[in-house]
Amino acid sequence: MSKIKFPTLNEQMDLIKRGAVEIIPEDELVKKLERSLEEGKPLNIKLGCDPSRPDLHIGHSVVLRKLAQFQTLGHKAILIVGDFTGMIGDPSGRNATRPALTIEETRANGESYFNQATKILDRAKTRMVYNSEWLSKMSFGDVINLSSKYTVARMIERDDFEKRFKASKPISIHEFLYPLAQAMDSVAIKSDVELGGTDQKFNLLVGRDIQREYGVEPQCILTMPLIVGTDGVEKMSKSYDNYIGISDSPKEMYGRTLSIPDDIIYLYYELATDTPEEELVEIKQQLDDTNVNPRDIKRRLARTFIEMYHNEDEAIKAEEEFDKVFIKKEVPDDIPELRTSEEEIGILDLILKANFAPSKGEAKRLVTQGGVSINGKKVADVGTKIKVENGMILKVGKRKFIKFKL
Hints:
- With 406 residues, this protein is an alpha/beta fold.
- It folds into 3 domains: 9-224, 3-Layer(aba) Sandwich (Rossmann fold), CATH 3.40.50.620; 238-327, Tyrosyl-Transfer RNA Synthetase, CATH 1.10.240; 337-405, Structural Genomics Hypothetical 15.5 Kd Protein In mrcA-pckA Intergenic Region, Chain A (Roll).
- 46% of the residues lie in helices and 14% in strands.
- The chain is globular.
- It starts with 8 loop residues before the first helix and ends with a strand.
């Protein structure tokens, strides 16, 4: 087998370090890369996938892009789908026990994860494995032996366990097994480098220790930042509704990107795109220039995301549609239609009928805040009765439109 020709050590380290928070320990990673160069043999780069979250967003893309960078350098990308550990539930960053999933649920979510992740990764060069392949074969004696290799004192040092313990919140014994099970993944595939968000640091370090206990060369660890959501405050999450999904429609992707605060534009360029370093420098200078409107840089970012996950034509269409609706204040072309037999209906019931609010209380709030209009005319009174006409357009908020048909 012929040796693989890799970029130089310095070229590799420059790309590996981009956006990374920590490399633990960096000198060991350098040695691994030097040996890889000498032997012409790629490193095993591991990323564990949490199958409880099948819908990926830009926040997940940060670590996936790092894995893709290792692929471009010639190394092996290995996605470990935690179908077995998903039945335990990862306690990382949790203030309560996370509900476990069934093996069927974790498998289905794993497939969805892989299909979305390969919008970023090279599908042909990505190895996906389920950790049930080795974990389900462990006997009770094997689990006791594994448990003997880590102390409760060290486990309780973990930040989320420590907080729950001090607050007298329950910690189940099986939660202690999660980082040990994840560590066995690193043993099974002989991981050279494991990637993760900063919230995974404890788990990744346990992997190093357990590999050593089982006679496997310890992996190096590379942590990436947890990207802030579109609100500029909380970590990006569907539960906070502050996300940009990588499977979002071009229209949704454009609108959500345009809603981000100006002070996180650069962060998104740096961590969630492959924008070259020299261009990043230019973007930073433009953001510091009071003569440059940050919205123009944000529009470019929105187009970049759509080109990455869809294509250039869709990016152009999404921008044109956005300008039509929000700048020219016109009605979009592709408004969904809703058929109704009611000829007169209260405005609050109409909003609920369109599924534009979860309750009458929320519908009232939208009306009183001036966010509701019929055929371009604002509705200010929550008691307003609407005479339904064919082609009538209800607009709620900035982006929700629906056309009624009798």
